[in-house]
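Chapter summary example: a protein plus magnesium ion.
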Amino acid sequence: MLLLEHHGTTDPGKVRKNNEDSILVGTGRDETLFVVADGIGGFEAGEVASSIAIEVLKEVVPSESMEDAIGEANRRILDAARGDEKLSNMGTTVVAMRFGVREEEPVAEISHVGDSRAYLLRDGDLRPLTEDHSLVAELVRSGDLTRDQASEHPQKNLITRALGAEDEVEVDTIVLPVEPGDRLLLCSDGLTDMVPEPKMLDLLASSPEGPERASHALVRAALDAGGVDNVTVVVVDVKEEEPPATPPRRGDTQEMRPVTPEEADDTGGTERRLESGNQGARALARERAAARKRARTRQKRGRSGRTLVAFVRVLAVALLLAAALTPVYLWSQSRHFLGFDEGEVVVYRGLPYAPVLNEEVRRTGLEESEVQERYRDEIEEHRLYSSEEQVEDVVNDLESSR
Ligand code: MG
């Protein structure tokens, strides 16, 4: 048996009034599921979007496809956004990690959309498990930017995928074999924008006492570095369970069998995975129910705990730019920006910095020298506008102020 020890913490940071990040730390119907969601949208819309994602994922059972569950969260966010003008532009990133057994080996299944990340600390190395769905990540992959340039890029928070953006959402999933000693991390960009990876590695590797200390150290580092965004961290340690002091009696073996979809949909939740009529299994079920209750209590304080996980190796059982520090999703065809080309102001559709992602709409006839200083940054840094009308309003301002 393997055991998961976990702790999750979220902090609004030092600049933002509200916290648009949401977390799930082993308190859903699948107790091995951990999620970080980073909401997007003005006022409190981001909070609403990330909360909806967590509410949906809380109901996921172990046999359910994570892609389907994230797809459902996407639909629920879109439905809520359509019903309320104030929520019309909301969205959220999501990174979800759950544990199980595949081909008799314990694994973590990691699914994500957007720029919230997962990492693995193993043998003293910190390995990223996700690739951001962001403009700068695309430019790094295409060789147009280095990773260092990307981390300083003014549009590093421009994400290319999010829940709440389109009717269908594309989810990336990996399955990672895990072993005792592994430490896994989920986090929002409020951590990764503030704390460089070598520092994250130091803090994770130097907190062997447990995930609570590690997660607090990471959040503290992000706050010390400025804390300009909401910071969320979930740390999960994979451990070998200590053998019991007294050998289990006959019938106490915690055997598990594959979950059938009918059972999984039943309200019995994770307990339904246990062999019926098995006293030990019932005891385990009670233990898990009690653990869940304890976890709920702990969640109010700091969301940490230990979850007994069904890692029985023998029997198989079934992861546009609004402001520089706000992750924003984009619909490239509805985005516009301005640029200077051969001394003239030009209107483009799509996304800047990658020629394949944009096209020229029209040349304005406005000379670069006629543009007032206060507009220059907006044009040189290719500020994004959400519609053609918006960019044309700016062009009108430029024309009337020259
Ligand atoms: Mg963020």
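Key point: Residues 123 and 182 are 8 Å apart (CA to CA).
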